Q: What sequence folds into this?
């Protein structure tokens, strides 16, 4: 866990959930984490723990998904003079010269919906291409900008980092080599739904299905393609991009990763990391809000307009405001406000 004020207390093990809860109540930390790995002796130093396996876990973050809204709500902010501007973040504030310049990644309905879509894509890839049972996938809202998906399938637990990297690359569509024979078949096919291309397993079949559903006939753009225009490869790339899931590969490959514990508050937002029973019905800007709505006064350095629990707040800049406690914690935890 991470106490208020920083630092990390690690290598803890408990004999029961009751012991763990008692320790949490005693320490009242800022953030609480648990490992994806199973060890013989989890309280020993890392090299002596005896690694036995690890759950396959994916992290999807809205900040990794390109959406047009980021240009409006992702900014750099100077903590010394309260100047702000669009990313990329400068080394020093152009207004006062301070090095205390931070990137602020905000969220809105648009980018959170994109994160939800990529979580749904990942579930389809895992169930259809890796034969993972839907019941074996648990989805959590991270408490911040995205989702954690845990795969409870013993086939994956013994995998090393390199094998997990291959899975991460597959769902991201990274490093994919499209056989020239497949491209030639696409060129020659007049009606994709009448060909054997749709019977391909994995990405080739996925590409063919998308191209088939988008147009009754295969694209025939040889002339344009020679000029670098919108050719068959561009169609293929769009078909891939429409189905990839932008997971964080560094998370998936880490066989000793610690994750925020479900049922605890995110230390940077005050929102709950919670199990998502239905992605379609989940509302990431209201369902994880568990703190009270009593209005409290805070001095906000800077915040763009944001929505929590159905209430639209801001924009604020260098002003004292009275806002619901859950919104005050959201700003305080991110260093954007102080208690008045």
A:
């Amino acid at each position: 866990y991470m106490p208020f004020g920083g630092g990390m207390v690690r290598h803890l093990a408990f004999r029961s959930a009751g012991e763990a809860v008692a320790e949490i109540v005693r320490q009242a930390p800022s953030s609480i984490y648990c490992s994806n790995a199973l060890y013989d002796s989890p309280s020993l130093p890392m090299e002596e723990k005896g690694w036995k396996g690890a759950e396959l876990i994916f992290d999807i973050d809205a900040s990794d998904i390109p959406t047009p809204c980021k240009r409006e709500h992702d900014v750099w902010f100077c903590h010394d003079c309260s100047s702000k501007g669009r990313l990329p973040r400068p080394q020093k504030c152009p207004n006062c010269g301070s090095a205390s310049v931070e990137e602020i990644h905000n969220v809105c309905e648009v980018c959170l919906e994109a994160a939800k879509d990529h979580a749904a894509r990942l579930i389809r890839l895992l169930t259809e291409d890796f034969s993972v049972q839907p019941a074996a996938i648990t989805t959590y809202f991270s408490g911040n900008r995205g989702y954690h998906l845990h795969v409870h399938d013993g086939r994956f637990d013994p995998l090393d980092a390199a094998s997990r990297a291959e899975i991460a690359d597959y769902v991201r569509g990274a490093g994919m080599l499209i056989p020239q024979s497949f491209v030639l078949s696409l060129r020659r096919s007049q009606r994709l739904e009448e060909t054997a291309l749709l019977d391909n397993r994995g990405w080739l079949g996925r590409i063919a299905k998308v191209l088939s559903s988008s147009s009754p006939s295969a694209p025939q753009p040889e002339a344009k393609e020679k000029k670098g225009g919108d050719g068959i490869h561009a169609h293929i790339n769009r078909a891939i991009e429409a189905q990839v899931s932008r997971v964080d590969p560094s998370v998936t490959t880490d066989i000793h990763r610690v994750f925020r514990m479900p049922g605890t508050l995110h230390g940077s937002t005050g929102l709950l990391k919670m199990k998502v029973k239905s992605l379609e019905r989940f509302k990431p800007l209201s369902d994880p809000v568990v703190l009270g709505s009593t209005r409290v006064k805070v001095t906000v350095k800077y915040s763009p307009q944001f929505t929590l629990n159905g209430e639209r707040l801001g924009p604020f800049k260098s002003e004292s405001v009275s806002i619901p406690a859950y919104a005050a914690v959201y700003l305080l935890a991110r260093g954007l406000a102080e208690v008045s």
In short: The first strand starts at residue 33 and ends at 35. The chain has three domains: 17-64+109-173+246-275, 180-241, 291-340. The chain has ten helices and 16 strands. The mean pLDDT is 91.
